[in-house]
């Protein structure tokens, strides 16, 4: 997964449509929240068993989940680009912080 290449594709996609004025951290954060909520909505009234089946055995629901996951990822990539945050470095740092915060010995 080449995050920079995907971010470049997103930049080009937005540029072709004249969307750059709208792609600021505030707007992107709001859009990211909406897409995450749309993912939640798919599971809202499902039992744990039904929810587990969505991604594995129900093709229509699986496609809906895949679409929402992709939307969340794309907005996350845009947010990282808009804020100048290197997602790979931030993720590595967060793994290290979580290892300190939640040591195996205390699990």
UniProtKB/TrEMBL annotation:
GO biological process: nucleoside triphosphate catabolic process
GO MF assignments: nucleoside triphosphate diphosphatase activity
Cross-referenced Gene3D superfamilies: MazG-like
Keywords: Hydrolase
The keyword Hydrolase is assigned to this record: yes
Protein's UniProt name: Nucleotide pyrophosphohydrolase
Organism for this UniProt entry: Inhella crocodyli
């Amino acid at each position: 997964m080449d995050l920079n290449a995907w971010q470049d594709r997103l930049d080009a996609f937005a540029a072709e449509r004249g969307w750059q004025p709208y792609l600021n951290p505030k707007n992107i954060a709001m859009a990211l929240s909406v897409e995450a909520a749309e993912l939640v909505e798919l599971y809202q009234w499902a039992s744990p068993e039904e929810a587990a089946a969505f991604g594995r055995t129900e093709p229509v629901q699986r496609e809906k989940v895949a679409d929402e996951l992709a939307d969340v990822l794309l907005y996350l990539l845009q947010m990282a680009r808009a804020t100048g945050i290197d997602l790979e470095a931030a993720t590595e740092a967060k793994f290290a912080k979580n290892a300190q915060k939640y040591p195996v010995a205390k699990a």
